[in-house]
């Protein structure tokens, strides 16, 4: 659907290449939230990021499992959404609605590595000095999903 077959050879429409015109030259799906192609950590091949920095993954090479930050960055928002406490309790509805949240009964009910979306497992202390556990992942549509242990 991206070209015309002439004498058993594909002639691709603009913005498509490859022997079957199945490779899009559109880099829009590779654009990271910082405006860089593949977050500056990969190459855009056929409209898909090929992350060249092994620490980064995901559709735009923005998820980093081993980098400090994913857990700490979202800790206050998870705390106010799940437990109605913490530093962002008063501003929760304005600042912390950027992810879908699912409560689970126990840690073994949290999503496990091996799923298609990059996943961070988090263990953080709340304002009462108690541990709480959650996972943070971003799916291919760019939607953030948090699973938190009740």
Automatic annotation (TrEMBL):
- One Gene Ontology CC term in the entry: integrin complex
Keywords of the record, alphabetical order, are: Disulfide bond, EGF-like domain, Glycoprotein, Membrane, Repeat, Signal, Transmembrane, Transmembrane helix
One annotated GO molecular function: collagen binding involved in cell-matrix adhesion
Q: Which PROSITE patterns does the annotation name? A: I_EGF_1, I_EGF_2
Family matches, as InterPro entries: EGF_extracell, Integrin_bsu, Integrin_bsu_tail, Integrin_bsu_tail_dom_sf, Integrin_I-EGF_CS
**GO biological-process terms attached to the record:** cell adhesion mediated by integrin; cell migration; cell-cell adhesion; integrin-mediated signaling pathway
One Pfam family it belongs to: Integrin_B_tail
Which parts of the sequence belong to the Integrin beta subunit tail domain?
A: 71-150
Query: What protein am I looking at?
Result: ITB1 protein
Write down the species.
Smutsornis africanus (Double-banded courser)
Gene expressing this chain = Itgb1_1
């Amino acid at each position: 659907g991206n070209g015309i077959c002439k004498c058993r050879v594909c002639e691709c429409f603009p913005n498509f290449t490859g022997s079957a015109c199945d490779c899009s030259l559109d880099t829009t799906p590779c654009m990271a939230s910082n405006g860089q192609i593949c977050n500056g950590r990969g190459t855009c091949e056929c409209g898909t990021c090929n992350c060249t920095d092994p620490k980064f993954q995901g559709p735009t090479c923005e998820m980093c499992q081993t980098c400090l930050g994913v857990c700490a960055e979202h800790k206050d928002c998870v705390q106010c959404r799940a437990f109605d406490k913490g530093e962002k309790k008063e501003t929760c509805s304005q600042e912390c609605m950027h992810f879908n949240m699912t409560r689970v009964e126990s840690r073994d009910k949290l999503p496990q590595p091996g799923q298609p979306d990059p996943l961070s497992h988090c263990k953080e202390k709340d304002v009462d000095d108690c541990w709480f556990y959650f996972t943070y992942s971003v799916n291919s549509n760019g939607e953030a999903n948090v699973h938190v242990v009740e």
